[in-house]
Amino acid sequence: MSHSYGWRLENSYADLPEYLFSRINPTPVSEPQLLLFNNDLANSLGIDLPTDDKKMLAQLFSGNQLPKDTSPIAQAYAGHQFGHFSILGDGRAHLVGEQITPDNKRFDIQLKGSGPTPYSRNGDGRAALAPMLREYLISEAMHALKIPTTRSLALVLSGESVMRSSLLDGAILTRVASSHIRVGTFEYANFTKGFEGLKILADYSIARHYPKLVQQENPYLDFLKAVVERQAKLVAAWMHIGFIHGVMNTDNMTISGETIDYGPCAFMDIFSMGKVFSSIDSHGRYSYGSQAHVAQWNLVKLADSLLPLLHKESGRAVKLAEEAIDSYSKIFNQAWITGMRCKLGLFGEEVEDFSLAQKFLDWMQTSKADYTRTFRDLTQENMPENKAYKSPAFQKWYMEWKERLLRNSKPLNLSLCLMRDSNPVIIPNNYYVEEVLLAGEGGDIEPFMALLEALRNPFEETLSNEIYRNPNKKMNSDYKTFCGT
Ligand code: AMP
Ligand code: MG
Q1: N or C terminus of the chain: which is more exposed, having fewer CB within 10 Å?
Q2: Low-confidence ranges of the chain (pLDDT < 50)
Q3: What is the pLDDT of residue 381?
Q4: Which protein residues have a CB closer than 5 Å to ligand 2 (ion)?
């Protein structure tokens, strides 16, 4: 264990059988330069580094000079990518260790873009600057939006170029996660080692993420149910803020219930259930409105992999898995309507709340309304002057909503408070995200820092977020996002 600078690093994953990972060091880079360091996150992890020693931090977070006594690994996993099974693994990431925080929580410290591994296939093991800036920004924004997510601790320019469609600056991101165990890790364990492999991984995952289940009669079934619950709640939370993950393959779905892998993700501006931003998602498999269903599809893959552990009779195992998967829709719907009630300021439960929320979304879709802005406008005592809000269709819905508010069990000012806590003023708007990434690529990180700062406080109208609230700043409707490796 390493103790200097507050590091308390273990690597419990490396005690698992070796087919689950490979020991491999990052490949050093020539001239690392620190671009971003997340001091608040470092503090919460109990890491106490000399923040003014940028050279030292650059050496550390490039993987050139790792904390003492660490033995990095790359994890093996598989995954269904757009429905097709592949063997994958960390092709450009190194798990440096698991930091034990002052309150005894365990977090993976992972470098991404830190060089090739045995799982790199044809890749170079590296990452380009813009996609790493994007992951840093969006993951931190998600955290501030109260969505479970991996975090970003540091970003270092490697000083080397990476070849993509053109030569780009290389970068290394330090990602923090409660673990990197994915649905695809279970698919891999089952595929390569069957029952034994699966049991070891499941026992480890339960002890790490769901320790209360260890004592249960059938901890594996309860583990499946617990992951179903966390994922159903996670995707409902994405829906509430208009987040589109973009590449919901089973290797990009954690068993901890944290959002992971910010590739072609984006926040919706103009509301549309079928919205897709990702350039590689030509069939809309991972569109906004498909996410709930796709998450369930992925959980079926987890259930399939876990079958041998659920019951020794295969017929019985399938029945148990089906029950767990069937619970998904109910949990998702409940989480969805609970969040929608908060967004609409509704206290108490009425069956018609579903259709009230749905009618509002339908109106937004027909009127091509901005998702974030429209919800936030409801938090004002009177709707702003705006042609769309004067339309008979909107007025009809608005009256219905006002009548529902009158039946609330609590006064109107509490509704407004609830709505202001549930409807962000700003999200990482595509226009500004593109603008600050472009500046960052050009060597100016200041616009990125300003947006990051504004996104730290998304539920309040502040001076720092004022400029990002301009509703006219939008990308064209044909705006596409890229996996951007
Ligand atoms: P992702 O799309 O980031 O979820 O990555 C899917 C798989 O491709 C993972 O196994 C990654 O490690 C691997 N991968 C992505 N980019 C690279 C790269 N530049 N070099 C090696 N492996 C990569
Ligand atoms: Mg991935």
Answers
A1: N
A2: 1-2
A3: 86
A4: 252, 261
Ligand 1 atom nearest 485 alpha carbon:
16
Supply the pLDDT for residue 229. 98
Provide residues with CB under 6 Å of ligand 1. 88-92, 119-120, 123-126, 251-252, 261, 263, 483, 485
Global pTM reads: 0.97
Q: What is the pLDDT of residue 473?
A: 81
Give the count of alpha carbons within 13 A of 136, CB side only: 31
How far apart CA 151 and CA 141 sit, in angstroms, is: 9
**Predicted pLDDT of residue 351:** 97
pLDDT at 2 (0 to 100): 46
Residue 98: what pLDDT? Answer: 98
Q: Cβ contacts of residue 320 below 8 Å, gap of 6+?
A: 218, 221, 310, 311
Active-site hit among 90, 108, 169, 251: 251
Looking at all shown ligands, the one closest to residue 119's CA atom is 1
Question: What distance in Å separates the CA atoms of residue 450 and residue 317, rounded to the nearest whole number?
Answer: 52
Tokens of 386: 């705006």
Residue 204 alpha carbon to ligand 1 centre in Å: 25
Output phi, psi for 177, to 5 deg.
-145, 150
Cα(299) to centroid(ligand 2), Å: 16
Q: What's the 453 CA to ligand 2 centre distance in angstroms? A: 27
Tell me which residue has tokens 């990009």.
Answer: 252
pLDDT at residue 484, as a whole number: 66
